[in-house]
Write a structure and sequence with these properties.
heterodimer, A: alpha/beta, 5-stranded parallel sheet, B: alpha/beta, Rossmann fold, 2 domains, 5-stranded mixed sheet, globular, binds thiamine diphosphate
Chain lengths: 320, 358
């Protein structure tokens, strides 16, 4: 079976990578002003995973993420103004100021609500896939999660069920080797995550250099098989690196749990810069200018938006 | 700053809540080699906001260690170790994560001693912290102590100050039952006088913090602090509130509360949680059951009956605070006069907002 994977559009890829990088940097710039009163978990350094995986998705495909989901939200085309407004706690936020950074959602773009409790969204993504399989329109679900989430029992329970029912789910583990500050060596008995996953009959791939094109290719192939019902769930483990602290906006290389050398190695392989470098300079700078405009408008929108009416405290407790 | 009794010990010094927790654990680990500490991030440089700082250096990696993100299994492992004679302290940086431990805590830990006919014991402590402010939001702010109060076989404690943090910790470790230890993020920097030597604040004993004739005010965990601030605001207008800290929620010292209510004829319970089926419901029911011969005015306050919002304007509405508590008390005691504390005074009394990110 040969699967036609659409050509790479480097401009689109770069636009997304750059948007995420710059939006996160802007959040970090604004943060000391205390206008964003929300525990932010930045994705700077990890952009390639979301962008590579989301690039082959259709608008009506579904993504599910974690409290570190600014990247997948933007990569899937979530509303940027609503993202910033949510961080500001404003009524115009994607969760109307009721979620915050850890609970982004944009159902118009099929971005399922994210959770601050590690692992909780994985089975929910699979539940959505149950409905999509029944619907039969070739839509798929991508479940993003960190290496830490694979330690929870719910991860294995979810894999088993997804495989058993051949559900259209792409599992994407963003392995940044850290759960807060604890390295993987202190948490995993062995590093063979892909092997563990394969025992469920789920094809599993590993990308160790964060190459956005490789990630895109693997995701596209897996998804193409799911759309036609030819294959069931698939799994990709992407090595990646979180450049900033776990929560908050600082660089924390002086805290003693990791070294700046490690950062420098990953920075030498920065996918944002590498993909940018493939464009001709004029094209690149016009994309960058457009990204700056979009972010500036989103920030202005957030700043000028009203806070929720205090009455909003008690709305949405129940639906209907 | 409020400090429980300064008598009885020469070696009192001001200590922060977070350091008192740490000291209580360290004292017991020195005394009893069976005690060990484990949980996510107990050994990193942030050390659970400092509350486990230095323990691994002092007691070694066998007795203080990190775990994978596997709360359900880790809780079972604590139970097994406890049955085998060890005394585990399982640490969680947020109380919300205890929901992953629920099966083991409710179906095994609480019941093992009974359903195995008294042949086994489960001496374990489950430490957990309630978050507040800076957009902690839906899943990092919950006060879920009432879920555990509901279960026979579990003890629940929620110390409101550094003195009790240490005394309750030592009592919890020495207890032969599972104890859910409820901490509050905003209490961590607060100071009180704490004896240097080990001591216990025993289960089932509440404390009368201030004497008053007009109303009994019971505050749970961090809300006790807010009640004491409300007490100051009320004192300025001549209302004397008798503020009581239950300290242990299970077993609950209802007698101390009853005694006070019989004197004041009025009761306000302020919980750091929702009121529905909560600690406030339990306290008021027990008082009602025993005061039917006497008219008692009763009321309660707690989280608004909604999910905790991160947006600051909504969050402000979500929590009780000293001004709201004082106004409520005034309404109960002097319903004919409408009164609200002066805004500036009330703001001064409010516990400093926590600056994030976590
Ligand atoms: C069930 C649960 N346990 C513990 C925590 C505290 N916690 C928050 S993030 C985190 C680390 C998760 O690491 P990983 O899944 O690798 O994701 P990353 O933060 O690296 O993106 C932990 C332990 C939590 N939020 N939920």
């Amino acid at each position: 079976m040969s699967i036609a994977i659409p050509q790479v559009d480097y401009r689109l890829l770069y636009r997304k990578l750059r948007l995420i990088r710059r939006a996160e940097e802007e959040i970090a710039r604004i943060y000391p002003s205390d206008k964003i009163k929300s525990p932010v978990h930045l994705s700077i350094g990890q952009e390639a995973v979301s962008v590579g995986v989301c690039d082959p998705l259709r608008p009506d495909d579904v993504v599910s993420g974690t409290y570190r989901s600014h990247a997948s939200y933007m990569a899937k085309g979530g509303n940027l103004r609503a993202l910033f407004a949510e961080l500001y706690g404003k009524d115009t936020g994607c969760a109307r100021g009721k979620g915050g950074s850890m609970h982004l959602v944009d159902m118009n773009h099929y971005i399922l609500g994210t959770s601050a409790v590690v692992g909780t969204t994985i089975p929910i993504a699979i539940g959505y896939a149950v409905a999509l399989k029944r619907e039969g329109n070739g839509r798929v679900v991508v479940a993003f999660f960190g290496d830490g989430a694979t330690e929870e029992g719910v991860f294995y329970e979810s894999l088993n069920f997804a495989a058993l029912h051949r559900l259209p789910v792409l599992f994407v583990c963003e392995n940044n080797f850290l759960a807060i500050h604890t390295p993987i060596e202190k948490r995993w008995a062995t590093r063979q995550l892909c092997e563990r996953v394969r025992t469920y009959g789920i094809p599993a791939h590993q990308v160790t250099d964060s190459d956005v094109l490789k990630i895109r290719q693997l995701a596209a192939e897996a998804i193409a098989g799911m759309r036609t019902g030819q294959s069931g769930p698939a799994f990709i483990e992407c090595y990646t690196y979180r450049w900033r602290e776990h929560v908050g906006t600082r660089e924390d290389y002086d805290d003693g749990y990791r070294s700046r050398d490690e950062l420098l190695r990953w920075q030498a392989n920065d996918q944002v810069a590498l993909i940018g470098g493939r464009l001709d300079p004029g094209e690149r700078s016009s994309i960058e200018a457009a990204v700056e405009r979009e972010i500036a408008q989103a920030i202005e929108f957030a700043e000028n938006s009203p806070f929720p009416d205090p009455k909003e405290l008690s709305t949405n407790v129940f639906a209907g | 700053m409020y400090s429980p009794d300064k008598n009885g010990s020469d070696s009192q010094r001001l200590l922060r809540y977070v350091d008192a927790l740490r000291e209580g654990v360290a004292n017991e680990m020195e005394r009893d080699p069976r005690v060990f500490v484990f949980g996510l991030d107990v050994d990193d440089h942030k050390a659970i906001q400092g509350s486990t700082r230095g323990l691994q250096q002092q007691f070694g990696r066998d007795r203080v260690f990190n775990t994978p993100l596997s709360e359900d299994a880790m809780t079972g492992i604590a139970i097994g170790a406890a049955i085998a004679g060890l005394r585990p302290i399982h640490v969680h940086i947020r109380m919300d994560f205890l929901m992953l431990c629920m099966n083991q805590l409710v179906n095994m830990a609480s019941k093992a001693h009974y359903m195995y006919g008294g042949t086994v014991r489960v001496p374990m402590v489950v430490r957990s912290m309630i978050g507040k402010s800076w957009g902690q939001g839906a899943q990092h702010s919950q006060g879920l102590h009432a879920l555990f109060m509901h279960i026979p076989g579990l003890k629940v404690v929620a110390p409101s100050n550094a003195h009790d943090a240490k005394g309750c910790m030592i009592a919890a470790i020495r207890d032969d039952n599972p104890v859910i230890f409820v901490e509050h993020r905003l209490l961590y920097p607060t100071e009180a006088f704490v004896p240097e030597e080990p001591f216990t604040v025993e289960p089932g004993h509440a404390r009368v913090c201030t004497q008053g004739r007009d109303i009994t005010v019971v505050g749970v965990s961090n809300m006790l602090v807010e009640c004491l601030r409300a007490h100051e605001l009320l004192a300025e207008v001549g209302i004397q509130a008798e503020v009581i800290d239950p300290i242990w929620l299970a077993p609950l010292d209802i007698d101390t509360i009853l005694q006070s209510v019989r004197k004041t004829g009025r009761l306000l319970v302020v919980d750091n949680a929702w009121t529905n089926c909560g600690a406030s419901a339990e306290i008021i029911s027990r008082v009602a059951e025993q005061t039917w011969q006497q008219p008692v005015q009763m009321a309660r306050m707690g989280f608004a009956p909604t999910t905790c919002p991160p947006s600051p304007v909504l969050e402000q509405e979500f929590y009780p605070n000293p001004a709201k508590i004082a106004a409520r008390v005034h309404q109960i005691v002097q319903p004919e006069v409408s009164w609200e504390p002066d805004k500036e005074r009330a703001a001064l009394a409010y516990q400093l907002q926590f600056r994030g990110p976590f």
